[in-house]
Specification:
alpha/beta, Nucleotidyltransferase, domain 5, DGOK, 2-dehydro-3-deoxygalactonokinase, DGOK_C, 2-dehydro-3-deoxygalactonokinase activity, DGOK_N
Length: 296
Amino acid sequence: MSKARVFGDWGTTRLRLYRAEGGAVTDRASGPGALSGEAGAVLGERLAPWIAEGGVEAVTLCGMAGAKGGLVDAGYVACPASREAWLSAPTRTQVADVEVSVLPGVCTGGDGVGEVPDVMRGEETQVFGAMALIPELASGRHLVVLPGTHCKWVELVDGAITGFRTYPTGELFALLTGHSTLGGPEVAGEGTFDEGFARGLERCGEPLGASLFEARAARIVQGRSSEWSRGYLSGLLVGGEVTAQDDRHGPVYLIGDATISALYRRALEASGIAVTMIDGDEAVLAGLRQASGVTA
C-alpha cells in the first residue's frame, strides 16, 4: 500500500491539511496559524495520526508556513512570476522524518527602483491552481481577485503573475467594527447588513474619511442597527476597492470563500463588471497538486 501525500494551506490564523491517496482527498485536519506557536511541533502533531495509519510520503505546504517565523523561510519569486518559476523554487525541510516542501510567495518591488513593494503568500497557489481549473487563464490578460483579510487584485498575463495590489480590507473592517465607535456596541435598530452594504456602495466613490462616520451617525439620528452599520462599513471598503481600479471593464475571476466572495461579486456587478466565481479550496488544492506532481 502506497503512502499518502499531504497538502496544506497554512495561513496566519489557520492551518488546513488535506490527505490525498490515489489523487483523491481522503481526510482533512486543521490547526492554528503558522505564526502562533512552534510550527514544526504543530505540524508533527497533526501528521501523527496519518503517519500511524499508513504513513505519509511527503508534505507540500503554501502560505505563511514559508514566512520568517513560520516553519521555514521559503522566500519569494519576483514578478513577473511564471508558474514554472514558482514550481521550481520550493524550500525543503523535515518534520517527523517526512520531507516537507514549502512553496515560495510572490513579491513586487524587490529591486527597490520605483515599484511599490507588495507580497503574497498562499494566494499565488490559488491563482496557479485556478489556471489548472480554467485553462483559458493561462493565455491572454486576466484580472483575478482573492478576497480575504488582505485582498489581492492580481494581473495575469499569459499565465504569469505580472503585478498585484493588496488591500487590507478584512483587517480594516475588523478594526473599525471591533475597536472603534463606528461599529459601536450591539444595539437594536432598523436595517439589515445587506441594506447597510447597499448604502456603503452608494457612497464608496466619496472620500473614505468623510464617509466613515455615517456608520455611527445613522445609528444615533436614524435609529439604524449595529448590523446595518457593519454592512455599511463593509460596502464602503469593498466598494472602495472596486472604484480604485484603473481598469474596471472586467471580467473578473473571484477566488475565495463563498460568503465574502458574494460581497465582492455584488460590488463588482453593481459597477457593471462580469464575474466568474472559483471556489477557494478547489483552487488551492489544484495548485498544491501541481506543486507535488499529483493528479486528481
